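User: Show me sequence and structure for the first protein, then do the same for the second.

Assistant: Starting with the first protein.
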Amino acid sequence: MTLLCITGEVIAPCELGWDDLACLPAQVADVSALLPGREGGGVRLRAVLGRAGLKDGATHVSCESRDGKFAASVPVSAVREALIVYRLGDAPLPTEKGGPLRFYIPAADDCLSGEVDQCANVKYLAVLRITRGAGHDTRPTTAAEHSTLHRA
């Protein structure tokens, strides 16, 4: 079953399932060591991007939720060490924890502070769309929108 689609400015667009993610290098056994209060295990974004290969000129990655309602576009250079959490113990990451995939940026700035902020941590991740320049981004741009997002 496909969990993650990698598309756009990549050499080899691909679809990855749970076993594919588990076989990649750069595994992180316990994300709580990097993200206190968070649970699960995952893989570094750099390993996932290495699988697809970036084309020359690719600068951003848009992380898009499964339902298509949320997306965050961030510079690849700033998030190579980000995490894609896909498991809790030996089982898939449950929906109530933001699964089956969740994107986290360790040490992200406070929300509304720039391109790489906490609002770029995407629940229900399904698509990584690599672009030349900033791509699809639905993050809030005002304090009111931000408050609404976090209440949801």
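Switching to the second protein now.
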Amino acid sequence: MEIEEDETNHKHLLPDNIKHSIILHKMDGRKSDKQIGRDIFSVYGRRIGNSTVKTLWNKYQKTHSLANDWSMKGRSKLLNQEDDEMLIQAVRENRLSSAKDLKNNLELPVSRETLNRELLSLGYKSYKAPAKPVLEPDHMLERYRFADGHQSWGMAQWSRVIFTDESAFRLINPNSRISVRRLEEERFEPFAIQSCVPFSGMVMV
């Protein structure tokens, strides 16, 4: 993966004294790139590869400069505002779309990784859809009656109640999951939930 020389990682770049030492060794011409790397490590305690020595020397021969290429502005965005709006619309139309699907369908000139980073910057992360049992009208009515009948309860009454939880262990296809692209606050929206029904291949604990 290419790492751009920007202000956030410039501390990892070679300092000027090491670069000057490498150039002096190359001008002298008596040591190989590998030997130069060993000398740099013995003197400065910095490990560098043969390719680093070669790249630095080639750059110096072309530019006669050892300045770093990063700028305060950084790299410009590959996607503009119109692309972002189109991306958001596509996500909202199909919450199950992966970054790869969006890239292919919208034909955007960026990699899947870049597209995924753009989605994250817009707040659209891929979450596992929480399972929600399919409720019949009678079930909904019972839940409404329970909530309505207990909304006035205080701490003294609720302190005598224990709510238990349960876990379902599926005997068939235990790794079944659906991922949806959504905003963090959209967790319980209908489109972000996968419906499920009980079946015989499950053990409840």
